[in-house]
Amino acid sequence: MAASRAVAKFWHHSRLTFNAANSPSYKSMYGITLMYDGWSGTTKSSLINFLVFCDRQVFYHKSVDASNHIHNHQYILQLME
């Protein structure tokens, strides 16, 4: 578990792009899943959270204010770069 937390902190503090996890060697070595979740509040603001799942734990990576954007696959991919 300590290794998983260390990997997640490394990703977060190094500001690595999510594309790095597409490397076959990284996936087989660490077995991580990148996730995002978005919602709109009562004030019409829209947030997207990015999370990392590793070793049966979820780690927060970042949040993005997406209020002025259409939430389609192109926008989500742009945020992951």
UniProtKB/TrEMBL annotation:
It comes from the Eukaryota. InterPro entries: DUF659 (IPR007021). Residues 28-80 form the DUF659 domain. It holds the Pfam family DUF659. This is DUF659 domain-containing protein.
